[in-house]
Amino acid sequence: EPISPSKIFQIRDEIFEEGPDMLRGRKIARFFNKHIPGYGANASIDAAWAYFENITLPRQKQDGQGGYTKIERRETVALLERGKSGIKTGLYPAWTTPMSEFRNFGIGVAVYFETMRALAVICLVAGLLYLPSIMYYDSTSYDETGRSSIEWQLRGSLMCHDTKWVPCPTCTLDDWADSPRRYAIAENNLVFVLANECADIRLREGLQHLVVILFLAIAIFALGFHQKKLELQYDEAILSASDYSIKVDDPPLDATDPDEWKEFFSRFEGAHVTYVTVGLDNKHVVNALIKRRLLLQKLRQIHRSEHSTKEHQNATLEDLIATATKRKPRLARSFIKTEEKCRNLLSPEKTYGTTSIFVTFETESAQRNVLRALSVGHKDILQNNVLALNDPNHAFRGKYVLSVAEAPEPSTIRWQDQDATLMMKLNQRILTSLITIVIVWGGFISVRAAFRRNYDLA
What we know:
Helix content is 46%, strand content 10%. The model is unreliable at 1-15 and 77-84 (pLDDT under 50). The strands form three sheets. Strands 8-9-7-10 form a four-stranded antiparallel β-sheet. A three-stranded antiparallel β-sheet has the order 2-1-3. Strands 4-6-5 form a three-stranded antiparallel β-sheet, with no helix packed on it. The radius of gyration is 33 Å and the shape is extended. By secondary structure, it is α+β, with helices and mostly antiparallel strands. It folds into five domains: 5-92, no CATH class; 98-162 and 197-238, no CATH class; 240-280 and 352-420, RRM (RNA recognition motif) domain (Alpha-Beta Plaits, 2-Layer Sandwich), CATH 3.30.70; 283-341; 421-458.
């Protein structure tokens, strides 16, 4: 049974759960609504918070074995529409959710938090390796004047307050341009510089730096292997559409017929094609349809506020526009303009090239067989070297070598960006890197200039 998002607004407030994990923001909103006159007069703030808690935020339900499993948003909506409020669900705890449950949100999310935890451990171990140096720098063996006058955050650093002005006849201001406060000229034009009287850096500290750098290099290298292992482990634990699907990144622009792709991939051993999705270079169409849908939802809200439930359910598109024209004519004009744009973009005269192909097979083994058969070097793909294929029949239309990989998770696909080519992505990364370099270099120049002009300003 299809679920209409508009039915959510007809759900009674008591259907939403009000468990012990109610958000603090909702409690504050209730307090304001009770004690501040006019607060939430034009809308039900509590209903909005209830929708946010039960629909927007991810929830978990009891699995019958004392644990919880993630409940999908569409399933939550269906249960609430049917009035099944007796099912025990709850929000995920911010601090006590086990790491194993993060895979319910996708492999990328689980690997990300596992990586954050590993990096925290690596940084902690690196800090402990530096502990002997920190203790040495915080002792009188390094600074005989003591460290009590230094901020506690810097007491374990190389900062030295045991200084002394010494004559330096050969020194010039240019030599001390980066530290102008350590350079001075006496009345008799004798040059003095501020010298540190703290102990010299020992070989032990240098070796310790090398040990920490070596540890970090090995730890980060090992973390990379650990990430791949986790990704494979989570991928095998959770079956998803990507486990049965592949993505073609470089299809011919005119290959828009899904039957042609189905016939091609059905040639492979044991391959039974279930679905074929053709991605088109129609970003403007997708954006226009998204805008139309948002505007249509606003038209329905306006119509619902002025008509009975029965009248609203039987309303046509013309009725929605007529009601909005009286209340919000600008919104009605915007919808009509967007509607005309959509019809123009979807007219039979318009054609759009192919950007990517998604193919879903009946079994995982079929997917792996296709990936194995079409696996060639990146150079052969760029040169369209058909001879690199094990079987000439694996060339699309007999002359195209396809770039094929396992399809990403459906929730990670941005259909508005399917027209982005490899060159476009490369140009964007180069431009972003150049802008970052310019900003960092500009910051360095600014701080250095300020430091030379005014130490306090720097």
